[in-house]
Amino acid sequence: MKTIFHKANSRGFANHGWLKSYHTFSFASYQNAERMNFGALRVLNDDVVQPKMGFGTHPHQNMEIISIPLQGALSHKDNMGNKRAIEVGEVQVMSAGTGLTHSEFNDSKTDEVNFLQLWIIPEQSNVEPNYEQRAFSSEEKKNQLQTVVAPKDKLEGHALPISQQAYIYRTNLDQDKLVNLTVKSSNNGFYIFVVEGDIDVANHVLGKRDAIGISETETVDIKANKNSELIIVEVPMN
Questions:
Q1: Domain limits at 114?
Q2: Where in the numbering of this chain does the Quercetin 2,3-dioxygenase C-terminal cupin domain appear (predicted)?
Q3: Which of 23, 27, 29, 28 lies closest to 10 in space, CA to CA?
């Protein structure tokens, strides 16, 4: 088993006034040669957007972009005609492929929006762009893994499709509960991100916003030391 431990306070940070952004991996002005990616997981940003502010129209190409709101709602608009808000409990996927443009905005006059944005390197370039979002039941992630993103050729449950052999799982663990992870492929690794709580995994104790990458093993056990919310990304390591 190979592990890489990322404490919450080791992340890059940018304060743009309207946006506070924590970068797990190198992004924009935060560049760290030792924090470029974890396998196919290229970006994990923890963003807080102030009321009535947002990201203007900007392009993406050849990247799988997943947004997961943690607090508030973020309005989305793109050049494919999609225009709607992403709310807590929902997950959004954009396969940028040959190229798309979009904007994201916090319409609230009073409340911040906190969301995670993940970028996964696709297995195939220049696919047709695709946008989907879906609400997921909170009960289906209680003390078990809920698959919210999966490869488009290996979809399971209500998972959203991406162009990579990667999966994203969510789980809410009660105190002292255990969950076991088993890789879909021997080439895959797990990146475990603690949204809230405190867990034991691979001889590490992780708290809020800590993360650990685990590879070169088939199974991983996670134990919650208190009620915890986790996002787990399973990605090819090469």
A1: 2-236
A2: 152-235
A3: 23
Beta strands 130-135; 83-87: pairing state: unpaired
Distances (CA, A) of 196 to 85, 118, 163: 24, 18, 29
Q: Strands (DSSP E) along the chain, which ranges? A: 2-6, 12-15, 19-23, 41-49, 54-60, 64-71, 73-78, 83-87, 90-95, 100-105, 113-120, 130-135, 146-151, 160-162, 167-173, 178-182, 188-201, 204-206, 211-215, 219-236
Q: What is the pLDDT of residues 149-174, one digit of tens each?
A: 999 999 999 999 999 999 999 999 99
Domain count, the chain: 1
Q: Which two tokens stand for residue 202?
A: 């691979």
* CB crowding 6-22: b at 16 or more within 10 Å, else e: bebeebbeeeeeebbbb
CATH number for 150: 2.60.120.10
Edge-to-edge strand order for the sheet containing 113-120?
12-15, 19-23, 41-49, 113-120, 64-71, 90-95, 130-135
Q: What predicted TM-score, i.e. pTM, was given to this entire model?
A: 0.97
